[in-house]
């Protein structure tokens, strides 16, 4: 099975919509658990990485690479 590619600050689409009506979420923390924030109502949820990968449909907006280090 192919692992889904996502990065910190990406906006992802989940399979089920949030009760507020949107299903676009921003990835705000990565590790063994993934924390995502609803782009509609700002509610945040933490999910285990495997559960997140199952529920994620696709990346809607990729985060800009951080070029602050010189």
Quick structural gist:
This protein has 70 residues and is mainly beta. Helix content is 10%, strand content 39%.
Characterization of the model:
The chain has 70 residues and is mostly beta strands. It has one domain (11-61). The protein has one helix at residues 49-55; strands at 11-14, 24-29, 33-38, 44-48, 56-61. Strand 2 (24-29) and strand 3 (33-38) form a beta hairpin. It is globular. It starts with 10 loop residues before the first strand and ends in a 9-residue tail after the last strand.
H/E element order:
EEEEHE
Distance between the termini: 37 Å
Instruction: Give the helix level as a range of percent.
Output: 10-25%
List the domain count as a whole number: 1
Shape: globular
Q: Detail the poorly predicted runs.
A: none
- The mean pLDDT is 89
The largest sheet is: 5 strands, antiparallel
DSSP summary, beta strand count: 5
Q: Report the sheet-strand fraction.
A: 35-45%
